Hints:
By secondary structure, the chain is an alpha/beta fold.
Amino acid sequence: MKPYVYITRKLPDEVIKPLLQNFNVNMWDHDDVPVPRDILLSEAKKADALLTMLSDTIDEAILTAGKNLKVVANLAVGFDNIDVKAASREGIAVCNTPDVLTDTTADLTFGLLMATARRVVEAAEFVKEDKWKSWSPLLLAGHDIHHKTLGIVGMGKIGETVAKRATGFEMDILYHNRTRKPAAEQQLGAVYMSFEELVEKADYIVCLTPLTPETKNMFTREVFQKMKQSAIFINASRGPVVDEQALYEALVAGEIAGAGLDVFDKEPIDASHPLLKLSNVVALPHIGSASVETRTTMMGLCIDNIAAVLKGTEPKTLVNKDWMPLVRA
């Protein structure tokens, strides 16, 4: 019997063709509605492979539901939705999609910074709502980007790529990371700083750090109060690294000038969320890597990883490096 692969969102038929040639494949029949927990659990009981989304919780109960599961391929660079330790213990490979989305996510991040700084969304709505009646010197005046100071929290590959874009605007680049990045310092002129120093000195603070126990609620009210009143905060990493109530209070109090957010603590965010009521917040629906080209490439990488594991070889992008396949009875 062919190995069974379950995909938790509807993907284009042409993308999954390589899987259909060698495996039995079933897909959740929606591309915009998460697969219900009970269905995911039922499918996990018989699956040899799962192709999952970042919004799917792949915990120990899912990983141990059946005896056949060998690989979980996550359509994201992040994998905080997966219990990686449990997967390793069960001999299940966990794969992600790094590198292929770096440039696309950096483009979106810098675009979000520009849209927030120059009040692009607010200005577009101003025109559409027929509020533009005359020209005035400070009508929807925003903040310059060129020659300002950019502070990047989380200087991974995406952070470095955002920094490259900033050089075109002749920005001074500061960064904070768990480890120093000598190459970025030499090639981009980036300056390493402590987190505390960075938030005090930067005009734009861009959060690109992964979600870990150490980074959860990293941005508190106290942190926002240390920023310049003219500072703009951008988050394109994970929602839970920010205390959203603290961010809301800081914006309302005028402690920072604005925020551009592609991620939220709970996704999808409800339209009644207080942050969405503020004109100086630009909110996007977690579309950092959402170009047709990049998402298609990500899907293909997931499929390649699944095929590799089910054929008995090592996948291209293995998360749990301690993975050792179990010989199941």
